[in-house]
Amino acid sequence: MNDSTLERFHYDNKIVKYFSAATIIWGLVGMLVGLLAATQLFLPEANLGNPYTTFGRIRPLHTNAVIFAFVGNAIFAGIYYSMPRLLKTPMWNSMLSWFHFWGWQLIIVAAAITLPLGLTTSKEYAELEWPIDIAIAIVWVAFGANMIGTLIKRRERHMYVAIWFYLASFITVAVLHIFNSFELPVSFMKSYSGYAGVQDALVQWWYGHNAVAFFLTTPFLGLMYYFLPKAANRPVYSYKLSIVHFWSLIFLYMWAGPHHLLYTALPEWAQVLGTVFSVMLIAPSWGGMVNGLLTLRGAWDKVRTEPVLKFLVVAITAYGMATFEGPMLSLKNVNAIAHYTDWIVGHVHIGGLGWNGFLTFGMLYWMWPRLFKTTLYSTKLANTHFWLGTLGIIFYALPLYVSGLTQFLMLKEFNEAGRLAYPNFLETVIQIVPMYILRAFGGVLYLIGAIVMMYNMWKTAKQGVFQETEEDQAPALAKAYNPSGEFWHRAWERKPVFFTILATIAIAIGGAIEIIPTILIKSNVPTISAVKPYTPLELEGRDLYIANGCVGCHSQMIRPFRSETERYGEYSKAGEFVYDRPFLWGSKRTGPDLHRIGGKYPDSWHYYHMIDPRSMSPGSLMPPYPWMATNELDNSDLPAKIRTLQKLGVPYPEGFDQDATADYDAQAAKVVANLKEAGVEVGPNTEIVALIAYLQRMGTDIKQSSASNQ
Q1: pLDDT at 282 over 60
Q2: Which residue of 21, 94, 195, 684 is surrounded by the most CB atoms within 10 Å?
Q3: How many other CB atoms are there within 10 angstroms of residue 38's CB atom?
Q4: What are phi and psi of 324, to 5 degrees?
Q5: Which residue ranges are tagged as binding site?
Q6: Could you give the count of Cα atoms lying within 13 Å of 518 in the half-sphere of its Cβ?
Q7: What pLDDT shows up at residue 163?
């Protein structure tokens, strides 16, 4: 072809470099915070003696940092590198690219500030408050607009498989984020969820499961389909398998969220749907794994010497392991063993450390030297990183599987007299402390590996010359193109808008069928006449409980197992949660379930337990909260909270917002009097008084003999 028929253009490598550098930096920060959280599970004193670095507050900081900062920036680096090259055109709008970069970094900084301050919605992977949610939506839409604009002005007629996954990720994350973030603001950094109780739980885990699917999985599958063939110098094994993989995966994933809520108060039909579609997910997931591994046919000899391929092979293998384990965990008999235990944490980190972490490392090792027009500084250091990371994953995950099984066996065991063999939850905690130490050691190895990579990347950049723009040329896209006998999917790939609409329909069906009936059909959430809204003091106490991240260690959901009802009390009913905004069922028990804690102990017990947990529970791993006995609670926004909840349908009497402070004071005086009788002097407006009021309310609305459904 003559040069005169070609159009010249360039790729922007600078935006790729910035996103790649952000990935490395935020990755180290997120891993370091995770290591601090892991250390606190066997050494509570590692909270550094202040509220901002306690486990409940830094755990969501860790998850947000590694998911949205480390993995998020890696996704954007990979897309901004691969998409222009696949479409033979620069990104549509450079200003949007930089708006996306700086906007995303500012969102991460906002998360790093607000979460340690206790400004949180407490929803898993969606803890950020409403102003940051709005910023996320704006930046995400800018990213998507840039992608679609690039697609429209492409010079390559057909969309390669990687771009299918990029598009589906953009659409689905936008839908998930917007619907899960329906909340009504109280003030600048406080809001209440638009959903309550069972409905909130379903929407949250529809979001939570699919945030894993469409933020941690589908964009990385797109990156796999681009970088693995590049690194192996082989074409993708099967085009038709990639079609089946893509469409079945995005359709089935959206139904699977309820498997996080098996045996809970969620309607049984929704649990069954979640289980059925979760089991079916193994087929497309393993289809993707097989397509990836078979792409290496004829190139396996390179795996021994090429660190990039080592990382990618282990990443794809970890993806296969995690996507086999996920469907298995959705079976009710397996879920009964694993849920609320450390097994789930191990499962999540096989995916996070193995699939996301290793694919990111492999991508960076391949891409970074090319940005600087040089070779990798040290293959030996990259191989060292690989083995440190691999050992880190093993030392991290295996102890957690042992820990999870230990928890299950001890918590379910009954003695010959028919009573619980280990009635005190703390007995199980003490047994698994060695596993927590090994887990932290695994985290240290993984972090050291990442530091080695950062050094290798820095030295690689120093020895090369950064190429800010990369020239390329390609023929313009011909307008008229109607081939006869074209494969049907090839025709779809020529029509990005049509393709996007089809993908949107595919991802919308499952969520709509599960969520709409749960919200609109009242019989899905039977009400209980005895359940009343929280008093103003209890409401403030609940908000404190949320701010301190207590739900990260304690569930409020007693499942209908004999072992749980014997240990905690009557199993939880759907109607008990109608005023819970947000729901607080939890996803992991590092401490006992608290749904029936109300009235079990005197106020003074809770006081001493918060000041020094080990004084009430010898051997406890809970950090002390002495500042709660002296910190004054700012309840100036209490009337605004009442008005907001009234708008959301909570039946407080008209004008109650004007009486809320008086009601608060009256109940606080009773708690103070109870404490004084036990020899404890505390001010009525301290945080601990409100927290005690909430703890004493939990699970007291119904009794086993008098629960009545309406």
Answers
A1: yes
A2: 195
A3: 24
A4: -85, -45
A5: 62, 209, 259-260, 347, 349
A6: 26
A7: 97
Q: Which fold has domain 160-294+488-525?
A: Cytochrome C Oxidase; Chain A (1.20.210)
Strand partners, 192: 184
Q: How far is residue 628's CA from residue 686's CA, in Å, rounded to a whole number? A: 7
Determine the CATH number of domain 298-475: 1.20.210.10
CA distance 405 to 386: 29
DSSP characters over 85-108: HHHTS--S-HHHHHHHHHHHHHHH
CA separation for the pair 673, 681 (Å, rounded) = 9
Task: Reply yes or no on whether the pLDDT at 426 is more than 60.
Answer: yes
* CATH numeric code, 536-708: 1.10.760.10
Q: What is the pLDDT of residues 488-531, one digit of tens each?
A: 888 899 889 999 999 999 999 999 999 999 888 888 888 898 99
Burial pattern 345-375, b for ≥16 Cβ within 10 A else e, equals bbbbbbbbbbbbbbbbbbbbbbbbbbbbebe
Nearest-CA neighbor of 219 among 151, 277, 156, 147? 147
Mean local confidence (pLDDT), 590-612: 96
Structure tokens at 113: 């500030």
| Helix 55-64 × helix 13-40 angle, to 10° | 160
- Give the C-alpha separation, 447 to 443, whole Å: 6
Q: Measure CA 233 to chain center.
A: 34
CA distances from 658 to 69, 317, 663, 694 (A): 43, 60, 10, 21
Contact residues for 4 (Cβ-Cβ < 8 A; gap 6+): none
Which residues line the annotated binding site for Cu cation? 209, 259-260
User: Stretch 602-620: mean pLDDT, rounded?
Assistant: 95
Q: Are 186 and 635 in contact (CB under 8 A)?
A: no
**Cα distances (Å, whole numbers) of residue 471 to 85, 155, 490:** 11, 15, 28
Q: Do domains 160-294+488-525 and 298-475 have the same CATH topology?
A: yes
**Annotated binding-site members for heme b:** 62, 347, 349
Instruction: List the domain boundaries for the chain.
Output: 1-158, 160-294+488-525, 298-475, 536-708
Helices of type H across 592-651: 603-611, 613-616, 638-647
Nearest to 143 by CA among 77, 86, 198: 77
SS3 state at 709: strand
**Which structure tokens are listed for 75?**
């996704």
Q: How far apart are CA 350 and CA 585, in angstroms?
A: 24
Report the alpha-carbon distance of residue 248 to residue 240 in Å, rounded: 12
Q: Which residues of 490-511 are buried (b: 16+ CB within 10 A; e: fewer)?
A: eebbbebeebbeebbebbeebb
pLDDT digits 0-9 by tens, 84-123: 999 999 999 999 999 999 999 999 999 999 999 999 999 9
* Separation CA 33–CA 12 (nearest Å): 33
